[in-house]
Design a protein that fits this description.
heterotrimer, A mainly alpha (296), B mainly alpha (387), C alpha/beta (527), B: 387 residues, mainly alpha, 6 strands, disordered C terminus, C: 527 residues, Rossmann fold, 3 domains, 6-stranded mixed sheet, globular
Chain lengths: 296, 387, 527
């Protein structure tokens, strides 16, 4: 039982981090219609900045720089590249982001090389144990950070002008611009938010039990894609729930791999996608997604 | 006359493709094989993405399926990770058939999801493929992969043995030469069939579904089935491409069929221009050749560092050029290479066809817009209250 | 004369660089006035508003000539956001409220440009004063409001920016008569508070009631203008909206109409038109009832028209018949088959073909390929035979191209066969879509506004084509159209819808005199 609870606790905390990444996918998608395949390298950029800066300027200032850097990177990708597509549509934008991802990841891989850069987080490698259930301190903090961030996001979208404008623009950009809302501005805000969320997730993911920042960190953003799709493409709540589902399922699949050996080794890698495909079979628009309204 | 002129590029291309092996060394022959395998897959994907407007990142899955199907069906009976010992030609056909069948199994999703949504769902297939390749060791050889039986037809091997020595115009014809022509036949067949599909009732139905599902349904087209059909066709192409890859590599392992392969296929058709078969071929040749050539000739490029030194090595440069090419085409080249070629052709003064001049619009576009993944926006909306 | 608030001079607009939507439009709105622009579907009314509110780019349109100035400022290089800040705010057609946002959040989005907290509070008070219902529903999601409430929310949302000039795009669309009256009153109140209004209406009664001055827009050009009272008195308006004309809708005699259609269409099968029975069909979308208990019958081989003011439910009805929408209750039978139980493609298999109000063609494909899509159902060879180009498949392909050429020549678009659709004019696109539907060899043809946006001459030609097709193929035709002379000249039987209900039915001369119909189109004064 304690083993199960330990797996569950780990799964939930991992799921919350996935949620942070998946929400970034949702915000970029709803604010600019872009399927952001470069989200992983933006995440890596944020984590990389923290890894190289925590020594000279201290961990917390480095985190601030990392978050701002990733946010700025997102804004620049949108302003310089996405908005200048020769044929702007979701398909070409998605492929553009594949190109951006290749460029960023190649450059970061060249800089990092074979090293694993420590993230320098003050919580180190401690573990919390409550009644036999153990959880790395870093993961407990990650869960707390994620919950606070989600609360801030809720406040932004429900209570501020900027947030309401972003939701209006996402729901019907054409009409929103008739209200004087500048779609270029809501788009930039969306990319900045997504970049910041990715950087936060990057720092949390590079903390213990992970060894530090390595190019493979970018791939972790891919693990959030099932969470995003599961939640339904355009729903922030869906992305968070999707993250939790994928986190827990992954943790359980890894924790009970021995019992599930008939399904083969390395189950943790494939289970999120298997869950995603099963959900799509039943609900093509995801758990929280709106069905596309057909206009004739 | 004009017909001949129109076909001239294709004829010249064919003659060049036939003659190249006489000039090429093994490196270039091998590169050519990789490129031709990719061309087949890219043609299939451009039918799905360009014609039917459906995105797929699952092509690596179907290529893997084709590759392992070929390796297993043609592999010798008996030892570890062996096979059925079937004829090689049958192996290639089966590679396409098995991939198509797997694509058909995916119909409940490929028939219902649209555009980029399908693209995301198919990401899952790549991870599924990896899991299967690693775990089904008896067929796949697991993580380390398995060797691939060389292609042969009775009495004639496509390896360097048997017949021991064959020469044309003084050039010795080894296994690579022979494979080159085999691949060329498959590529030509793939292009011909692809063009026919595009121009057929099925192709027109697919394009109509891409442009308006409601209009397509009103014309009696089964929209879900049309989308699933496009997916099956392109899966079959990917399966055959996988078999060719297996032959070109001689040994296959799970790492060859990662997400990167899916992305590469997508990049090929985008560089070439969505929906264009010649464009897909050109894109495939570029994507495959670039890293191989840079690696091969890196020692002769003074600004390149050795791998691992942290400087700009050949592989890194290839990746950067690859990424930059994607950006350049998407930002500056409407319709990819095919679109650019079309515009070049149209820039010449058009022949006088006696047609009335285009509508009295001051800014008539000079080039055909390319098929896009999104659905064209409609100037006016329904006048009535809809949900 | 005071300086105009809004001045439009010699405006021309084109979509996708090819389709000319407006030409030479001139219009002025003086401070403190209400101006109406009247016109039928496809006349370019919405395009005009979008050009003024700087939102054409979103739908692929661009100004190709002319000048628009607002309060003395040239709008050429300004965007929509600038226009809102300058006091030029548009309420879009079809309300377009943010359905998932609450009423309060909708208003908040409308007041986005107002940075001063006090100004915003005052605007909110004003709006809630004008629309008390919005205060009651403040925390409800916009999508749950009724149609009339949604219209009020859309107007309130725009008023949050305290505009100098309010642009209203068909505010009466799909609203019940008493609500239309109420919206009219509200416009007068808004006007009384010092806001100028530019109103686009198909409901001529409503437009002429509230406006000081009106313009009539037809096929992209202004064809009449004057004080509302004067315009309302002319026969011209009555004629245009009801087709009660002195020059009777000519059957064939028109200078550019082919008097005799020399082309013969053939059926490849012996399918015959059947009786279409629409019984008690109701369609609801959320809180809005688009069709309510509508019944009518189309006898085999006849031309039946479905008319009614905008928002009456005509397109909804055609969409139910074509399978694009599901009926909430009621049934439609074509012969013995129950259409309401079938998906679109199965309905097509029954021999039902249709055109769309917002032309739905493959823009990059050639005219020929678009027409060949219509042959989808008729073609018999399998996909593999076609892919391998087997002899019988090639033969069929040739036969089909000949068949399509015949249809094209009937429609007068033979010389366009090789052209990509995106290079064609609006009228030609309408013809291609008609051709695609005819290519399917239907026994029942559903035409959703086949001549919208066409000139009188063009629509006469279209009428001849429709009649020829009907006679040669023994088709039944259901026609939804606003062009009354066209409808009255063509239809044998007419069903009139208003606010989702059937209000009249009968032959043209009977319907033209029906007081209910007159009232629906021209308002109570006219009847």
């Amino acid at each position: 039982m304690t083993y199960f609870l330990t797996q569950l606790a780990n799964g939930l905390s991992y799921g919350l981090i996935l949620g942070l990444i998946a929400v970034g996918f949702v915000i970029v998608f709803t604010s600019t219609g872009v399927l952001n395949f470069a989200h992983g390298s933006v995440l890596l950029t944020g984590a990389y900045l923290v890894a190289i800066l925590h020594d000279p300027i201290g961990f917390w200032p480095a985190v601030v720089v990392g978050i701002l850097g990733a946010a700025l990177l997102g804004v620049l990708i949108n302003a310089v590249l996405v908005r200048n597509l020769a044929e702007p549509n979701p398909g070409t934008a998605a492929i553009l982001m594949l190109g951006v991802d290749i460029l960023l990841l190649t450059e970061l891989t060249r800089r990092i090389g074979n090293r694993v850069l420590p993230i320098g987080a003050p919580w180190g490698a401690d573990v919390i144990a409550i009644g036999g259930v153990t959880l790395p301190t870093s993961r407990a903090i990650a869960a707390g950070v994620a919950v606070v961030v989600f609360a801030l996001l809720w406040y932004l979208f429900a209570r501020t002008d900027t947030g309401v404008a972003m939701r209006a623009a996402a729901a019907d950009g054409d009409t929103a611009s008739l209200m004087g809302i500048r779609l270029s501005r809501t788009g930039a805000t969306g990319w900045a938010l997504a970049g910041a969320l990715a950087a936060i997730a990057g720092v949390l993911l590079a903390s213990f039990p992970a060894p530090g920042v390595a190019p493979t960190l970018a791939i972790s953003a891919f693990a959030a894609i099932p969470a995003w799709v599961l939640g339904g493409f355009d729903s922030v709540v869906g992305a968070i729930v999707g993250g939790l589902i994928i986190g827990v399922v992954t943790a359980l699949a890894v924790g009970y791999e021995a019992e599930l050996h008939v399904l083969g080794r390395g189950l943790g890698e494939v289970v999120p996608y298997a869950v995603m495909i099963i959900v799509l079979l039943v609900r093509p628009s995801g758990l929280f997604g709106r069905k596309e309204a057909v206009r004739v | 006359m004009s017909d001949l002129l129109r076909r001239l590029p294709a004829i010249v291309g064919l003659v060049v493709a036939l003659a190249l092996p006489l000039l090429f060394n093994d490196f270039w022959l091998q590169t050519g094989l990789f490129a031709m395998a990719a061309v087949v897959g890219a043609i299939g994907l451009t039918l799905l993405v360009g014609v039917a407007g459906q995105l797929s990142l699952g092509h690596a899955f179907f290529a893997a399926l084709g590759a392992y199907t070929y390796a297993w069906t043609v592999g010798e009976v008996g030892d570890r990770a062996a096979g059925l010992g079937l004829p090689a030609v049958l192996g290639i056909v089966l590679a396409g058939v098995v991939a198509a069948a797997a694509g058909a199994l995916f119909s409940p999703i490929s028939g219902r999801l649209r555009g980029i949504y399908l693209g995301l769902a198919t990401v899952g297939l790549v991870f599924l493929a990896r899991h299967l390749m690693v775990n089904l060791e008896a067929y796949t050889g697991g993580f380390n992969g398995r060797t691939v039986e060389p292609f042969s037809v009775p009495g004639f091997s496509f390896s360097n043995s048997d017949p021991d020595f064959l020469a044309v115009a003084g050039v010795e014809f080894g296994g690579l030469h022979r494979l080159w022509y085999l691949f060329l036949v498959v590529v030509l067949l793939a292009a011909w069939l692809g063009r026919n599909v595009k121009a057929s009732r099925t192709g027109r139905a697919l394009a109509n579904v891409r442009d308006s599902e409601a209009a397509a349904a009103a014309m009696g087209i089964r929209v879900a089935r049309a989308k699933a059909t496009a997916f099956v066709i392109s899966s079959a192409y990917a399966g055959v491409a996988g078999a060719l890859m297996a032959l070109a590599y001689g040994r296959i392992a799970p790492d060859l069929f990662g997400l990167q392969l899916s992305i590469d296929f997508l990049v090929m058709i985008v560089l070439g221009g969505l929906g264009s078969i010649a464009g897909a071929a050109a894109g495939a040749v570029f994507v495959v050749t670039l890293p191989l050539v840079l690696a091969q000739y890196s020692s002769e490029l003074p600004f390149l560092a050795t791998p691992g030194s942290g400087g700009l090595d050949a592989a890194t440069l290839a990746r950067l050029l690859y990424g930059a090419a994607i950006l350049a085409v998407l930002l500056f080249l409407r319709g990819g290479l095919a679109g650019a070629a079309r515009r070049l052709r149209h820039r010449r003064p058009p022949r006088d066809t006696g047609e009335p001049p285009p509508v009295a619009a001051p800014t008539a576009p000079t080039a055909t817009p390319e098929p896009s993944l999104s659905h064209p926006s409609v100037p006016t909306r329904s006048k009535e209250t809809t949900p | 004369m005071p300086d105009p608030l809004l001045l439009v001079e010699d405006l021309a607009v084109a979509y996708d660089g090819a389709v000319q939507a407006l030409r030479g439009v001139a219009l002025r709105v003086d401070p403190g006035s209400v101006v109406a622009v009247l016109g039928s579907n496809g006349a370019g009314k919405t395009t005009l508003l979008r050009a003024i509110s700087r939102s054409l780019g979103d739908v692929g349109g661009s100004v190709t000539a002319g000048r628009i100035s607002f309060a003395g400022q040239d709008l050429a290089r300004r965007d929509a956001s600038w226009a809102v800040r300058a006091g030029l705010v548009q309420v879009p057609e079809g309300r377009r409220i943010f359905r998932d946002l609450t009423v309060e959040e909708n208003l908040r989005a409308g007041g986005y440009t107002v940075r001063d907290a006090r100004a915003r509070r005052e605007a909110t008070d004003r709006v809630l004063d004008l629309f008390p219902i919005l205060a009651e529903r403040s925390h409800q999601r916009g999508g749950l409001l009724s149609g009339g409430q949604q219209q009020m929310l859309a107007m309130g949302r725009a008023l949050m920016a305290s505009p100098k000039l309010l642009l209203l795009d068909e505010p009466s669309l799909g609203l019940a008569p008493q609500l239309v009256e109420q919206i009219g009153d509200i416009i007068e109140q808004i006007h009384a508070q010092g806001t100028s209004v530019l109103l686009i209406e198909q409901n001529a009664a409503m437009g002429l009631r509230v406006a000081d001055r009106a313009y009539v827009l037809e096929v992209g050009a202004v064809t009449a203008e004057g004080a509302s009272a004067e315009l309302a008195g002319t026969d011209d308006i009555r004629n245009r909206y009801l087709g009660v004309s002195t020059t009777s809708p000519t059957r064939t005699t028109h200078e550019d109409a082919p008097v005799d259609v020399p082309v013969h269409l053939q059926r490849t099968s012996g399918a015959r038109a059947e009786r279409l029975r629409v019984e008690d069909v109701t369609v609801r979308f959320g809180g809005i009832t688009a069709l309510s208990g509508v019944s009518f019958t189309i006898e085999p081989g006849t031309i039946h028209a479905l008319i009614g003011p905008n928002g009456a439910g005509k397109s909804t009805c055609i969409n139910v018949l074509g399978g694009a929408y599901r009926a909430t209750s009621g049934t439609v039978h074509y012969g013995d088959a129950e259409v309401t139980a079938l998906p679109s493609h199965r309905i097509a298999d029954l021999g039902v073909a249709r055109t769309f109000q917002n032309i739905s063609l493959s823009l990059e494909a050639t005219v020929e390929d678009n027409l060949l899509v219509g042959r989808h159902r008729v073609m018999r060879t399998g996909a593999s035979a076609q892919t391998l180009r087997l002899p019988h498949a090639r033969k069929e392909e040739r036969t089909e191209r000949t068949a399509v050429r015949r249809i094209a020549s009937l429609l007068g678009i033979e010389q366009l066969l090789g052209r990509a659709v995106h290079t064609l004019s609006y009228g030609d696109r309408k013809r291609v879509e008609m051709g695609r539907a005819l290519a399917a060899e239907p026994t029942l043809l559903l035409l959703d506004e086949p001549v919208a946006g066409m000139t009188h001459g063009e629509s006469q030609v279209m009428a001849d084509v429709i009649r020829a097709a009907q006679q040669e193929l023994g088709l039944s035709i259901l026609l939804v159209e606003h062009d009354m002379p066209f409808v009255m000249g063509l239809a044998e039987q007419i069903t009139v819808l208003d606010f989702g209900k059937r209000i009249a039915e009968g032959p043209p001369d009977h319907v033209q005199r029906d007081p209910e119909v007159l009232r629906a189109y021209l308002g109570s004064a006219a009847a």
